[in-house]
Amino acid sequence: MEALRTGLPAAVRVNLGSHVAAKLLTQLERLSLLSDSDGEHASYAPRLLPWFPKGLGWQFDRLCGWEIRSNKQHKRLKAYLLCLQEHGSLSRQEAVSMLPPLCLDVQPGQALLDLCAAPGSKSSQIIEMLHWEQNSDPGLSDVTENLLPRGVLIANELVPKRADLLTHTVNRLGSPCFAVTQLDAQFFPKIMDSNGARFLFDRVLADVPCSGDGTLRKSPELWGKWTPREGIGLHHRQYTILLRGLDLLKPGGRLVYSTCSFNPLEDEAVVLAALLRRHGGQKVTLIDLPIFEDLSGSPGLKTWVVPHPEDGRVCWERPEEVPDELREKLRAPLFPPAQGSEEAALWEEQRCRCRRFLPHKTSGGGFFIAVFLKDNLPCLDVGEPAPDCETKSNGSVDRGLISDHEECAVDDDAEVAGQGEEDEDLDRPAEQECVSRVQGSAEEQNAGDGQTQSQNASTGDGLSRSQRRKRRQPQQIGDYEIVPADDPAWLHAAAFFGLDPSLACNLRRKIGHPKKIYWISEQAGRFLACTAPFKMRVISAGVRVLEQLGASRQGAQPMWRTTQEGLPLLLQHGLKRRIAVSASFMKRLLSGVDLEVAELHAAAQAGEVMGLECLEASQEQLQAGHPPGLISGSLAVTLLTEATRTAGLAVSALLSGRCLMGYASQTEAAALCESMELEARTTALLSPVEATKPEGEASQEGGGGGGVCRQFQAGNCTFGDGCRFSHETTTTTAAAAATTTTAT
Ligand SMILES: C[S@@+](CC[C@H](N)C(=O)[O-])C[C@H]1O[C@@H](n2cnc3c(N)ncnc32)[C@H](O)[C@@H]1O
């Protein structure tokens, strides 16, 4: 209890794939040397989390998340972290919440499913892990085609607004290895690949909605809200999500079940109920978690009590003790196994493999994890499905031991309806939020009552479930189509950017939306080519790499631009329209200044710009009547110091007959600029609060460039005093802002 009353240390995870990963790790190491003699900044010393691979996880032991968020004294640290988060270099994530993805043992090329994914901390971590092989040496990525990530994470979320937030979170990573779906995980359908075989996942994460009492350290307001009813109401939904996940898992595959709750009704009771069944004819068992140095959890509970939903002081040990009027609510699966029963023996053997992470032992938040392994043996005869968990006349409990759950869990064909939701606050703690999101939704009521959407649907049209199933045609997942290798628009874009036309096999576009082209990993492509019994909502897939510029003239080929998020991929694949510029030139570009073509040539003369010749009209073009000089259009601008085939800092830009302008959004541009100033920014963190940013001296902090913050003018700049753009509101600066060309 004492531990729960203290703040939760803030923790961060560095993205190995970021172009600043190596620099950022150096700065974290530098900060870690701070000590008490550094006075007010001593708490800025992060500690390396020894159990996180590749030295990427860090924790600020003496600083909690809400302090960074709300204490003005830490505004520069907040801006520093926000900026790094914005360009996907760093994620703020509670330390124990980093464990489930590590328990998945992600391997390159795998297909993974995150059933309950918003706001997306674990999904981002998994996607980053899919890239680890490729980014094994931070900052020096030697990317070859063979090492391009092939795997996929399908990140699923029920609530539409949270699914949008999830999409934003994973999009920051610029990865081709994901798709976001918006479905009720309980009804995530059986999908078939293009060969008619079932598409199963190598790994599944079921980080289910829970009562969130493990997050009391970061969300103290939960103290007043918690009731025993929540755990009881959530148990059934957690169980059906877990069953669905196990069914979607390949034989030999792993599923990680996790909650941020201490409640055994949401933890042990759910895990035990799933262990007692077969899944697609296969048995499942628990396996030990990996060893996390410094972070040992406790085993799962042997026994527990079930409280009265309205009065936590009244509890029962056995289902038979429950008064008749509560028997429907407090069903047998909520209870521990009866002493001496077959189930108790099984549980005794398995429970030690569950792990409870307790705040007073780990200095972190409360968490529960169990790792399931699905049998690799041929299916056994599964027999008749058992009735769902009934109390026998002799008082013992029938949990359907080793029966198959196929029929008793959920209907594959259930259509999923999204639920309306209130606004998001990015700064609010993830796990706690997910609790409040699900409470009160109509769908929660259904799940709590044990009534599924499929049951509702079955009464609708007078047809039986199997009749409706037969009547339905399988539907292709999502609305994505392959870009044909001989598509004229693609061939034109490939020729313009100097890309190999055969790259088309990686590209998709949304049906009816030919103006955006996405790059999709091999496994993501396989997933999108599958069919499902109903139209699945795929909100986003892969990374947008090309976008058509304006409307094309009648008969003329459309012009394309590279997107900021897709640039690293295109550069790795030989994009030829690229120039390299000095740091000071890059800062000017990022500050939103239009750089006149004459200035570009002068900078090239001075050695500040290299590679202009790749923008010049070729002999062929000149013969075809193109005027001599630079060819207008989209291009990549990289830093002169970066080797050309690395994932270094690169900016999408546009050259017109008159000038060169950046095409990153204001937020992206600000974040990229900050990333160039990482060392200076870290130094600035450590100077006295008042002296750090004297008015009008932004450039002394390494900001350089100037320019007016349009986010500030629109009233939504998140960087506050830490913003590198001007927050002045004079007429002069407003007029200057009107002329900036950086895209929003
Ligand atoms: C514990 S949170 C997930 C946190 C997430 N894994 C992360 O690390 O950022 C649970 C999420 O499940 C969502 N959810 C609730 N019921 C669901 C359902 N039936 N199907 C899919 N998602 C659901 C909630 O809206 C919430 O976003």
UniProtKB/TrEMBL annotation:
All copies of domain C3H1-type, residue ranges: 708-730
GO molecular function annotations of the record: RNA binding; RNA methyltransferase activity; zinc ion binding
InterPro entries assigned: MeTrfase_RsmB-F_NOP2_cat (IPR049560), MeTrfase_RsmB-F_NOP2_dom (IPR001678), Pre-PUA_NSUN2 (IPR057285), RCMT (IPR023267), RsmB/NOL1/NOP2-like_CS (IPR018314), SAM-dependent_MTases_sf (IPR029063), Znf-CCCH_4 (IPR041367), Znf_CCCH (IPR000571)
Bias (Polar residues) ranges: 438-461
Signal peptide: none
Domain SAM-dependent MTase RsmB/NOP-type, residue spans: 1-375
Active-site positions on this chain: C260
Compositional bias of kind Acidic residues: 416-426
GO biological process, one term: RNA methylation
Keywords: Metal-binding, Methyltransferase, RNA-binding, S-adenosyl-L-methionine, Transferase, Zinc, Zinc-finger
List of residues binding S-adenosyl-L-methionine: C116, A117, A118, P119, G120, S121, K122, E157, D184, D207
Domain of life: Eukaryota
Ranges annotated as C3H1-type zinc finger: 708-730
Disordered: region residues: 416-481
Protein family membership: Belongs to the class I-like SAM-binding methyltransferase superfamily. RsmB/NOP family.
PANTHER family: NCL1 YEAST -RELATED NOL1/NOP2/FMU SUN DOMAIN-CONTAINING, RNA CYTOSINE-C(5)-METHYLTRANSFERASE NSUN2-RELATED
Protein name, per record: Uncharacterized protein
Originating species: Polarella glacialis
